[in-house]
Amino acid sequence: MQQRDLLKEEAERLGKVLGKLMTLLLRHADEAGGGAAVDAADAEVATETNLDIPHLLTLDKPAVQAYLEDRVIPVAAYSPLADYLEAAGVRVPGKSDRYCTAAEWIRQLRDEELGEIPLYRI
């Protein structure tokens, strides 16, 4: 029971951090240029969480799953993380495919973990 509460609190904290970063990313992307804003946001993710986004982007799907599990990222935080990666990906020329692919894998991992099937896959 206590462990579940701790995981829930961590998921909420990560969701808030990633939401804040996505807002900053969207606000500053036009000012600083997409790539610079994303680099700054990725650095902030590393500071606020124990996730190294550039490293995460180099991994394949099974390695992404292992990476998130090693860092004890709760499944509830997967959706905000995927949203952040997708928002960052559309602003980085040349790397958008890696960001969006990682976002899709994380969404798939979330669905698999929760036993859910999204409507677009039916």
Structure report:
- By secondary structure, this protein is mainly α.
- The chain has six helices and no strands.
- It has helices spanning 2-32, 34-48, 53-56, 61-70, 78-89, 96-114.
- It starts with a helix and ends in an 8-residue tail after the last helix.
Summarize the structure.
With 122 residues, this protein is an all-alpha fold.
Question: How do the helices and strands line up, and which of them pair or pack?
Answer:
Layout (H helix, E strand, L loop, with lengths): L1 H31 L1 H15 L4 H4 L4 H10 L7 H12 L6 H19 L8
Helix pairs in contact: 1-2, 1-5, 5-6
Spans with pLDDT under 50 lasting ≥5 residues? none
**Helical proportion, percent range:** over 70%
Classify the secondary structure makeup into a structural class.
mainly alpha
Average pLDDT works out at 81
Largest sheet: none
Beta-strand percentage range: under 5%
Query: Taking Cα atoms only, what radius of gyration do you get, to the nearest Å?
Result: 14 Å
Count of runs of 4 or more consecutive helical residues: 6
Give me the count of strands. Answer: 0
Distance between the termini: 35 Å
| Anisotropy-based shape | globular
Write the element-wise H/E pattern from the N-terminal end onward: HHHHHH
Oligomeric grouping of the chains: single chain
Query: Any idea how many domains?
Result: 1
